[in-house]
Amino acid sequence: MLESMRPRVVVHNVASVDGRLTLAPGLNLMAGDERWTAMTTDLPDPYAWARTTHEPQVFLEGSGSFLNPVAGALQGVEPAPALEGAHFLPDDVVGVPGRRWFAVVDGAGVVDLQFTEWPDAEWAGWHSLVLTSQAASAAHLALLRERHIPYLVVGERRVALGRALELLGDLLGVETVVSTGGGRLGGALLRQGLVDEIDVELLPWAIGGRGTPALFDAVPLAAGEWPTRLELLSSEVVGRGRVRLRYRVVH
Fold first, then answer.
1. What is each CA distance from 201 to 85, 194, 205, 218, 239, in whole angstroms?
2. Can you give the pLDDT at residue 73?
3. Residue whose C-alpha is closest to residue 105's, from 86, 129, 123
4. What are 66-85's pLDDT values in tens digits?
5. What is the rounded CA–CA span in Å between residue 194 and residue 12?
């Protein structure tokens, strides 16, 4: 049997100069608010740059990008409805040539996706995909099937990210994943050694604030545990004080 090879993972974000991804705890990362909109008013579409630069088959988001993580965690969760590996991968979706994915890591099954394919003509062919766990309710999985949204069930209480990435490669032929999710997803990928490149476009703003989502909201380093070493690939000023940095993770 061939050994599974996970796809290359790039973490790509727009952040303040102090590494904040939004303005305060609890703000929806996808919607933001009027202040974040004003701060990024002249910012080109960061997804477009990532698509051109990395040509990914998957853009990866976390559940916190869609809802308040605390509110989501308070929702009731039914006992595990499915066994590990009880995936939903309908052929008429998965088998489309050149299929690409907008994937959401949603272990608890609390994100209410309102679209199957990205509702923008420039994103034709990009389809929703959910990475979930056995903690998702049977009703939620049934809703995904009803909406014809494929999903992978990987892990008991939360998504087993390493195995999920391997399955993206093994089952869907994915070679490159660009994670544009929040700090919790970025932090989990970083701590598990699953990041190959970090790209960040820094805005000329400082936000601060205890608990404000940052690039890598991970558990603190243990005694004797080293930070992740990086090698600078490129740096460029991209307009009005914004700086784009690209780093390779030294494994």
1. 37, 21, 12, 20, 11
2. 42
3. 129
4. 754 433 443 555 555 566 67
5. 14
CA dihedral (110, 112, 118, 120) positive or negative: negative
Q: Write out the H or E segment, with its range, that includes residue 138.
A: helix 138-146
Using a CB cutoff of 8 Å and minimum separation of 24, what contacts does 41-45 make? Answer: 42/239, 42/240, 43/14, 43/201, 43/203, 43/242
Q: Give the separation between CA 159 and CA 69, rounded to whole angstroms.
A: 15
Q: What are phi and psi of 102, to 5 degrees?
A: -105, 100
Residue type, 105: V
3-state secondary structure of 109: coil
What is the per-residue pLDDT for 100? Answer: 97
Which pLDDT score, from 0 to 100, does residue 69 have? 41
Element counts in the chain: helices (H) and strands (E): 7, 9
Spatial CB neighbours of 180, under 8 Å, sequence gap ≥ 6? 12, 13, 46, 47, 50, 59, 60, 61, 65
Low-confidence ranges of the chain (pLDDT < 50): 1, 68-74
Is 251 within 8 Å of 193 (Cβ atoms)? Answer: yes
In angstroms, the CA 75 to CA 88 distance is: 23
> What is the structure's pLDDT at 70?
35
* Token digits of residue 232: 């600078």
Task: Go through 91-117 and write b for each residue having 16 or more CB atoms within 10 A of its CB, e for each that does not.
Answer: eebbeeeebbbbbbbbbbbbbebeebe
